[in-house]
Write a structure and sequence with these properties.
alpha/beta; Rossmann fold; 27% strand; globular
Length: 206
């Protein structure tokens, strides 16, 4: 998958979050969107996901050199962020089974296998509302990374993770993301130190 931004700009009221952004995200590569807190990293990532509409410029999504219409982009992208809510009345098993109705999992992994990899097997039938913040974040990452899509967007992916959670994250990136387009939004180098390229959002404020 390839995502091409041409003179892209997004503003809220009169304030430009980013402007005149020309960039190409290519298949089989990993990218970091960096910048200070509140600089617009998440806004850019949401625009890339097609969740936000640009005020200026265009975004072109391509798969196998064919353009994808904006209304179909969500089928090709998996996205998670700290501000995304889980369905806390569900158990983790129910949540992943529900998700699987919309996007299949890579390598024909079963829900049980994914929960095992996320070290959540013992809590598979527990309602998510009883999970710790770290357990919830591992579930969010599992939902995103194990979805069978060509592009993964991760916003502050290691929020609330302990050392074991970081190790899981690195292992999943290395094992399951190298043949896809991966974009990580963060100001913590530990979340994106493996990325091939970096884009600093603060360079596109004028």
């Amino acid at each position: 998958m390839k995502i091409i931004l041409t003179n892209a700009g997004k503003r809220f009221s009169r304030e430009w979050i980013f402007r005149n952004l020309n960039y190409e995200f290519s298949h089989n590569k990993s990218y970091a969107i960096t910048g200070a807190n509140g600089s617009g990293k998440s806004t850019l990532l949401q625009a890339i996901s097609s969740a936000l509409i640009l005020n200026d410029g265009i975004i072109n999504w391509q798969l196998n050199e064919k353009s994808i219409q904006p209304e179909n982009v969500h089928q090709k992208i998996s996205f998670t962020a700290p501000y995304f809510e889980l369905v806390e009345e569900m158990t983790a098993k129910e949540f992943l089974l529900f998700h699987a109705q919309f996007k299949t999992f890579i390598n024909n992994f079963s829900v049980e296998e994914i929960l095992h990899k996320a070290e959540l097997s013992n809590a598979a039938n527990k309602q998510i509302r009883f999970y710790s913040s770290g357990m919830k974040q591992r579930l969010k990452l599992a939902q995103a990374i194990f979805s069978d899509v060509p592009c993964i967007l991760l916003d502050e992916p290691c929020t609330n993770l302990d050392e074991g959670g970081f190790n899981l994250y690195y292992d999943w990136i290395d094992s399951f993301c190298k043949n896809r387009l991966l974009i990580v939004s963060s100001n913590d180098i530990n979340e994106y130190k493996f990325c091939d390229e970096q884009l600093n959002i603060q360079n596109f404020k004028k």
